Amino acid sequence: TSILGLAFGIFHGLILLGDHFIGFTLVQILVPFTTTTYKPFLVGLGQTSLYLWTILVVSFYVRKKIGSKTWRAIHFSSFLMFVFAVVHGITTGTDSGSPVVQLVYLVSIVIVVGLVVYRIIRAVSRSRQKKNQAMRSNT
User: Can you tell me the mean pLDDT for 33-38?
Assistant: First the structure.
């Protein structure tokens, strides 16, 4: 799924070369924050998100070589990647005003935030259980 999503992201960037309204160059497509004609910062967030996504996907295949701590740090960047991608989509997407697209954004955000909150609650609960077990075994 990650590879397929990455492929769509790359396709999205490359297809913009055919957009004659804005007229992106290959350099503007590949180098974040270099667009001059259309929302440079917001387009750059999308490009940065794509590069973070690429690193994330590659890290799956080199996990043993880079170690668990590095792999985990890379995976924490996925939160930043998601925020960048959502901000990019909402602010630069020509169809962001469409109710269907807005629903897609909303559902995606709710799912990701909900799962993050669930994971935090679960981690806190496990930590409390371990503390309680340690207290019981010490008494």
Answer: 90
3-state DSSP assignment of residue 98: coil
Does position 139 have pLDDT exceeding 70, yes or no? no
Distance linking the first and last C-alpha atoms of the chain: 49
* Count of other CB atoms within 10 angstroms of residue 43: 24
Q: Closest Cα to residue 32, out of 17, 7, 50?
A: 50
> For position 20, what pLDDT does the model report?
85
- Report the SS3 class of residue 31: coil
Distance CA 30, CA 9 (A): 12
Place of tokens 């996990």: 63
Name the residue type at position 36: T
pTM: 0.85
Residues 6 or more apart whose CB falls under 8 angstroms from that of 90 comprise: 96, 105
Q: What is the CB neighbour count within 10 angstroms for residue 78?
A: 16
Query: In terms of C-beta density within 10 A (0-12 exposed, 13-18 middle, 19 or more buried), how is residue 49 classed?
Result: buried
Helix (H, G, I), strand (E, B) or coil at 39: coil
